[in-house]
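Hey, can you fold this one?
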Amino acid sequence: MIRDDEYDRGLGVRREIFGSAGAEQQTESTTELTDKMQEIVTRWCFGDIWTRDDELSRRHRSLITVAMLVALGRPHELNIHIRGALANGVTERELREVCLHAVLYCGIPSANEGLRVLEAVLRDRDPESPLLQPAAP
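Sure. Predicted structure:
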């Protein structure tokens, strides 16, 4: 694995968004199978693209990423990026709206899966979240 300034910057971004579990725990537990993938994710994804704050804020990148993962139907990555979006200042209600907006462009099954993942994250983080309370009649 190539470790340079871009890699270190990417590791820092991963740490800020996802905590140690999304940074060191991922990169330090690589195998011959996963080593190159973790380098690509750390250097290119987070060390290059996610640090382009002059173009889009991390908050905006999180919203876009969540929307794309809903559209693609990738619940594992969506779970991770919903948590990251919350760390980047995206609100629970904004995340709900992304899933609802996805109904129009991705279809009901994708939006439903997005809402299921969001619900699981919210139940794990804050079971008292207003979005988890019974809807008003």
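The chain has two domains: 1-51, 54-127. Let me know if you want another pass with a different chain boundary.
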